[in-house]
């Protein structure tokens, strides 16, 4: 093939490759994400874009990632294969996130600390961490008065992610009937458990605040003033 034809073919191939439609699973993953570890330390944010960075896609970590999560701070590109994979500028794989039945993206527990990757939310920069939850809290409607005081503590039989829970008085009947007596950090959620088989799922919603995960009337858990 003449050189000028070969050059033209290569140019057209490159243009076609860059003009190829962006897969839906890439579009669905584009945006700002929080990466945080299961040891309760502050995480950092990374923006995933649908712009090509070589054979992958462009990633832009926040400036504080260089201090908080060095591997994330080095990320320059990303791709998706059963979960997000972050790459350095030289193509080296930095972190590999997988999705399990919970659908949350996280790294393998075999190489602690486990890194979680969740959609960034205002005021949220770390994962739930059982030791940091001990002490007094209150359940309330968003911005409203207290419905029920709660106290978390570490009992002698509690495992690393578990807490003993006691409700105080006065306690709204809607909360009291749950008979809450224990809690457990499960990935990026705080689960409150009661008897006989009641539960309440909470997710971080800001500094020292959690919000009911889904369904029913909104509810939040905050530190008392």
Largest sheet: 9 strands, antiparallel
**Unreliable runs:** 4-13
Span between N and C termini?
A: 78 Å
Give helix and strand order, one letter per element, not per position: HHEEEHHEEEEEEEEEHEEEEE
Question: How many domains?
Answer: 2
Residue share in helix: 10-25%
- What would you call the structural class? mainly beta
Strand order of the largest sheet: 6-5-4-3-2-1-9-8-7
Any idea of the CATH class of the largest domain?
Answer: Mainly Beta
User: Averaging pLDDT over every residue, what do you get?
Assistant: 91
The CATH topology label of the largest domain is Lipocalin
Structure description:
It is a single chain. By secondary structure, the chain is mainly beta. The protein is 15% helix and 43% strand. A nine-stranded antiparallel sheet has the order 6-5-4-3-2-1-9-8-7. The protein is elongated, with a radius of gyration of 22 Å. Keywords: Signal. Residues 200-225 are annotated as: Disordered. This is Alkaline proteinase inhibitor/ Outer membrane lipoprotein Omp19 domain-containing protein.
